[in-house]
Amino acid sequence: MIATPDRTPLPREFFDRSVLDVAPDLLGRILVRTTPDGPIALRLTEVEAYDGENDPGSHAYRGRTARNDVMFGPPGHVYVYFTYGMWFCMNLVCGPEDKASAVLLRAGEIIEGAELARTRRLSARNDKELAKGPARLATALGVDRSLDGTDACTTEDTPLRMLSGTPVASDQVLNGPRTGVAGEGAVHPWRFWIANDPTVSPYRAHVPRRRRS
C-alpha cells in the first residue's frame, strides 16, 4: 500500500496523448469510486491499451457506434461496456477528440474501502483478488453502464475520479500481449503491469468459443 499518494486530480491533458503513452503512465495512479455506501479507492496495477481504428482488437476498429461512442472523446471520460452477457468492464478514453482510443483497467489494489468491496466480491479468497481482472475490478467498484461517459478529470465530487497517486518507475513496468485478444490484434504487446505485484491478473491467450451442438 502506498503511504502518502498524491491526491491531486489528473488533468485532462494527461489523457490527451497517445494511448500507448497513457497506458503505462496510469500504473500507480488512484481511481476513486464514490457511492452512497461510501468511497472505494483503487491503485491501478494492470492495464491494456486499445488504439481505435489502428487496432483490430479495439471496439472502435470498424468505426463509431452507439456502444463505443464515448471512446471518440473527449479524453478523460469513462467508457463502460457489457461483455459475455454478465460482466461490465471499465476504460479511460485517451487521445484527441474524434480519434477513438482507450485504456482498459485490468487490475488494481484496493487501498480504501475494502470492506465495501468485499460485499460485492464474495467469491474473492483474499483482498488481493478483489479487483484482479477487469470484470472483478468493475464489480468491486460497483461500475455499470450507468457510468458510461462519466468525466473522471474533475475536482468535483463525481462517481469516478482519477488522482495522481504515485507513478511507477519505468524499470518496474512490464508489457506483453493483451489477454484474450484474437486475430491480428493478438500480437500487440499493449498490456502493461507492475512487476511482481500480487494483484495483477494471470495472462490468458484467446480461446475460441465453441458453438453448442
From TrEMBL:
Listed GO MF terms: alkylbase DNA N-glycosylase activity; DNA binding
GO biological process, one term: base-excision repair
Entry keywords, A to Z: DNA damage, DNA repair, Glycosidase, Hydrolase
Keyword check for RNA-binding: no
InterPro entries: Formyl_transferase-like_C_sf, MPG, MPG_sf
E.C. number(s) listed in UniProt: 3.2.2.-
Gene3D superfamilies reported in the protein's UniProt record: Methylpurine-DNA glycosylase (MPG)
Organism: Streptomyces tuirus
Pfam families (UniProt xref): Pur_DNA_glyco
Annotated family: Belongs to the DNA glycosylase MPG family.
NCBIfam families in the cross-refs: 3mg, PRK00802.1-3
Name used for this protein in its record: Putative 3-methyladenine DNA glycosylase
Top-level EC class as recorded in UniProt: hydrolase
Coiled coil: none
Keyword Hydrolase attributed: yes
